[in-house]
Here is the input.
Amino acid sequence: MHTLLFLDPGHFHAALALRAANPRVADEIVVYAPDGPDLRDFLALVERFNRRPEAPTRWRPKVVSDGDPLARLIAERRGDVVVVAGRNGGKARTIRRLHEAGFHVLADKPWLVEPNDLEDVRRSLDARPLVMEMMTGRHDVTARLMKRVVDTPGVFGSFFTGGPAIELEASITWRSSSTAPRSGAPGGSSTCACRGPGRSTSRRTSSIRRSGSSTAPGTRPARRLGSCRRAAGTRACLRARSAASPARRRSPPRSPRSWTAMRSAISAMSR
Here is the structure.
């Protein structure tokens, strides 16, 4: 039976390792982290897994607050598998220190942030205890089969090396009409166009009231557009912005890849 230790979780990848129960993992987990929003977010997500109506988990997190959570974790050794997520700066050094202290490590990407991290990663992967990346699912059966297909030239073929494999082109044009009278003109409407370089075949046209609201058919009514002005006979470019759209909430992905990879990792550590 393995006991999971979570070292200062700085990303929801850490909690995704707990999406489902594992018969080889104890329900009690220990979290070493200073008090703060990252710790509270982690505990809230674990609580959501425990309270969901379908296949709820039974995790019992124990929090150990310390100014140096890594040193405290190594000194107490209350488990054998450490989950490291987020805190990318210095992650490779942290992984190596845990490995040399005798812990298995499950860490999310990226491991390599700077050139000096490469030696730490090499040392961590030399021998057991195991250090495994838990996000890509490369140990899953589906990923292994896909790799075999890609590695078989008779089935997959070969990669194109004569230049870019894919080229995208875009050409975007913004047009607007304003009821504001032209500078020096008795009345009427003025127009301005802002055309940007790029490669696309898409074109978007908007009709703009003086207030700046988009009224063209097919456009989003919540979109607000900057005013169209004429100053000293020079057209000002129209800049669009979705200021009225609600902010997107960062929510954990539904993909089970992290748990699949972690399940494979726990099986490997149990051998």
